Amino acid sequence: MKEFFEQIKDKIEEIKNSPGTIFGLIFPYFLVIGFLIGLYFISKLEFLTRAKVPPVLKDTTAVVTDIPIREAKIVPPVNLSEIKNATPQLLSEGEQLYKSNCASCHGETGAGGGPASAGLNPAPRNFTSLDGWKNGAKLSQIYTTLQEGIPGSSMISYDYLLPEQKFALAHYIRKNFIQNPPQDSQSDLEALDATYNLSAGQQLAAQIPVALAINIVMNEYETDLARVENALKKIVNSNYNGFFSNVTSDKRVALMFLVRNFNSINNEQTFKKIVINNVNQNGFNGRVFNLSDQQWSELYKFLSSVI
Ligand code: HEC
Question: What is the pLDDT of residue 141?
Answer without folding.
Answer: 97
